[in-house]
Input
Amino acid sequence: MKPLILFSLILTLAALCVANLLWGSLDIPAHAVWQILCGEDIAAHPSWRFIIMENRIPQMATALFCGAALSTSGLLLQTAFRNPLAGPSILGIDSGANLGVAAVMLCLGGGVTLGSLSLDGYLLVICAAMAGALSIMALLVMLSSLLRSPVMLLITGVIISYVTGALISLLNFSATEEGVHSYVMWGMGNFSGISLDRLPVYVALCSAGLLLSVLLIKPLDTLLLGDRYATNLGIRIRLTRNALLLCTGLLTAATTAFCGPISFLGLAVPHIARMVMRTSSHRILVPATMLVGACLALLCNLCSTLPSNGSLIPINVITPLIGAPVILYVILHSRKQ
Output
């Protein structure tokens, strides 16, 4: 039964990928899309090739990897902390990315010059987000050697989120109206900010994190039995925790830097995967979570193109409509037990 469900998820993922190529704010016939993908020229509509190759394909790939990355991060954190409400934002890694972007947009005016090196625009936003997220991740890895309890590490992540939130509020208070607007728009999240030439970097970062999560399947299954039992089976708890922080930090940093802070996917999708697969084995849950997360992100991307005037709905307007009911169900279900 479970292999059949996984196969159905793969088919659904393929169908949503095709739908993302065919459906957008501009109506392009299916046969024209196929001709463009096959390398044929569309002489009557040369702009269609640019839309498909430079917009829809990168947007589809970005949504796919973002959904898989954030969902997998949520699953790993929920297992490691034995907390059904743990998600990628719980450790403050995405807050570090937010602080980096806020410093650039609100304090530096969107540009910085160091000697002969000058960075501005989209590239600077990505660098600032990655630097902020990786700095918080490095801090958490250092603290994990001092805090043996995962609960204390979880609380530390919450404190870090509050501190970074306070710093961002301070920057907002003293920023210009244009800077605040730019930061708010970035915070709404989108899958359309990655061009075709930048896509390989994003895919490589997400693929590295997803591969590491697959390598963590066996230790995570053992952690479900308790730290003492896992230690008796030869699992090195501290090394596993640091690998987990590295994995979730890399996935969260990459997605937040390139797509903005996408909410609810990492929190809700692991619960959907558990309800669909009806198992706690990570050998099944990890691939199922990747597939479900990618499918939901692609569905959200389709919904973002609903306006017929060519504009896009921010992703963070859509994801809570899917994630909030799932989290509410988890909370109500846990009270009945």
In short: Confidence is low (pLDDT under 50) at residues 113-119. The first helix runs from residue 2 to 22. The beta strands are 111-114, 117-120. The two ends are 27 Å apart (CA to CA).
